[in-house]
Amino acid sequence: MSTFYVMAPPDLKDPVASPHEADRLVFVADRFSWAAFVISIVWIIWHRMWLVLLGYLAITLALEVTAAFVGGAAPAVAAFAVALLFGFEANGLRRWTMERSGWRLLGLACGSDQTEAELRFFQSLQSKSSGSSPATQPPAPIVRPSRVIPKIGTETVVGLTLGQETSR
């Protein structure tokens, strides 16, 4: 199961009102981004995260210059570490950039993939807007019959011989 943050643009009125309004929602996954790990700068530019690009370039440049003074495999290790860290934080930085641009968080959606998460989110959103609430009652308590008596036989269990069967 993956978790997705559902982001709405600043001028969105009601996502349930029309399919066009619902199409404007963006589902940002809360997981490792392989694309951001492999092609970081392209991923940042694709998502138009200009402030993040400046920070990424500054951090990468500082680490690479420092690693160059150390020599050996340090520049490669530093580049891998930056890419790995960015892969873990890329979607969080994307959500942060969207919030700075006025987007708002509508909620969370869970699903095995984005399609299932969208279906679940819109189903819950539609049921909230129509006034019908899904079953919110707590589950029924487990009732155990009172006449069940545990029986102990004469079997050997892990080298122990248990006593005779008891009854009430």
TrEMBL record:
Residues 125-144 are annotated as: Disordered. Keywords: Membrane, Transmembrane, Transmembrane helix. It holds the Pfam family DUF2628. The chain crosses the membrane at residues 34-59, 65-88. InterPro entries: DUF2628. This is DUF2628 domain-containing protein.
